[in-house]
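Page 37, continued from 36.
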């Protein structure tokens, strides 16, 4: 008991608690983090804009403007939904995973040191509740 309350013991408990938090948040949030690829949707939008331009050419500016504006608005709505689901602007879905062991460790460390967790935050209700419980304990 004396060793646990020594400086080395407290540091060991702190590191162990952070590692446990890393596994905890990784398990909770891993399934919620969905890589969203927008490359196909972007190509489809470009093709649709090209077809609209080719169809209307320069003879009917009002129809071209209406059709192309509708297509761009549809793409913007899709992008907003993708960003909400976790798209970070990178088309390579394997290049960044915020809930890897390292990401979970960083999140756990910044939460319990009250620094704040920046751009990584849990998306699930369970993850948010466990953040509160984890931080309080």
């Amino acid at each position: 008991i004396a060793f646990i309350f020594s400086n080395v013991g407290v540091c060991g408990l702190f590191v162990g608690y952070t590692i446990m938090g890393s596994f905890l948040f990784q398990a909770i949030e891993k399934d919620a983090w969905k890589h969203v690829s927008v490359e196909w949707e972007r190509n489809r939008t470009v093709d649709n804009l090209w077809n609209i331009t080719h169809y209307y050419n320069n003879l009917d500016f009002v129809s071209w403007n209406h059709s192309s504006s509708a297509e761009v608005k549809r793409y913007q709505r899709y992008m907003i939904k993708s960003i909400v689901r976790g798209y970070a602007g990178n088309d390579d879905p394997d290049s960044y995973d915020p809930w890897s062991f390292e990401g979970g460790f960083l999140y756990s460390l910044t939460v319990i040191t009250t620094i704040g967790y920046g751009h990584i935050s849990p998306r699930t209700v369970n993850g948010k509740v466990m953040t509160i419980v984890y931080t309080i304990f």
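The chain has two domains: 2-33+97-136, 38-85. Flag for discussion at group meeting. Residues 38-85 form one domain.
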